[in-house]
Write a structure and sequence with these properties.
Length: 274
């Protein structure tokens, strides 16, 4: 590992480093950096003393989050697809930061992750991924369950469906009968892998992991207040900020930590046909 980043870099320090070491999407980094840092604070302060630091970052993209953990002593493996991981700059940054890259072609059938050793990771970061999944994810979770070591933890972050400033509460669309979630015009009119196909409530996420396996235990599930206004359906006016401060269920982001105390029954859910 060879880099000059501090343990807790500022957004300017991280952006400058990545630009100098092969380039990055600086606008995306600057827009999402507060979320990255809040997620890291929540993870680090809730780790058990002596917890292992082998991390799998699913959806590593430009390595923005992976870098923050790598410079803090975590042994990071990052998973994503070819559009970013095949770039020479990203591969160079990974070498400099000591991040192992795993290139997947299809998360529905994650063959590259399936080749990793069992119990390889103490922590799986699934950040802003679950809302984009358009396939049945049970097999993917079987692979991730196999990779997570006993006493390990999965951390999921995702937008809150009930956010005061979220798409679901867009007043103009509500009064026009336009529904919630992703607008039809975006489904049909854009070429992107960034759609929010399904935004969850806190209770839905809890149910999601309880259904997957009786081995999973919900350690913590909270709504997070910090978020950027441009990522929401309405600006963060004084009323919205006050409501979010005092009514957690209206906050924009969800953060859930799922523990695996021991491996006994595995992923027990078997999808059927209706």
């Amino acid at each position: 590992m060879s880099h000059n980043l501090p343990t807790h870099p500022t957004v300017d320090e991280l952006a400058s480093y990545l630009e100098a070491e092969g380039g990055t999407d600086s606008a995306y980094l600057r827009g999402h950096f507060p979320r990255y840092m809040r997620t890291k604070v929540e993870i680090v302060r809730n780790l058990a003393p002596g917890a292992g630091q082998r991390m799998l970052d699913v959806g590593g993209h430009w390595l923005h989050q992976a870098a923050l953990y790598a410079v803090d002593g975590f042994k990071v493996t990052s998973v994503d697809m070819a559009p970013t991981f095949s770039l020479a700059g990203v591969q160079h940054q990974a070498r400099e930061l000591g991040i192992e890259l795993v290139m997947e072609t299809n998360l529905e059938n994650p063959t590259a992750m399936a080749e990793l050793a069992e119990n390889s990771f103490d922590l799986i970061l699934f950040s802003e991924i679950i809302e984009h999944i358009t396939f049945n994810p049970v097999y993917m979770w079987k692979v991730l369950y196999r990779l997570l070591a006993p006493k390990g933890r999965i951390v999921v972050t995702t937008p809150n469906y009930y956010a005061w400033r979220g798409r679901a509460w867009d007043r103009k669309r509500l009064f026009r009968g336009g529904g919630g979630g992703l607008p039809v015009a975006e489904i049909l009119g854009l070429n992107t892998y960034a759609h929010h196909w399904k935004e969850f409530s806190k209770n839905e996420l809890i149910e999601y992991f309880q259904r997957l396996s009786p081995d999973f235990q919900i350690h913590r599930a909270v709504q997070i207040e910090e978020f950027h206004p441009w990522q929401c359906g309405a600006p963060a006016n004084w009323l919205g900020k006050k409501l979010e401060r005092h009514i957690p269920s209206l906050r924009p982001n969800l953060h859930i930590e799922i523990d695996l105390p021991e491996k006994r029954e595995g992923i027990t859910l078997n999808p059927g046909w209706s």
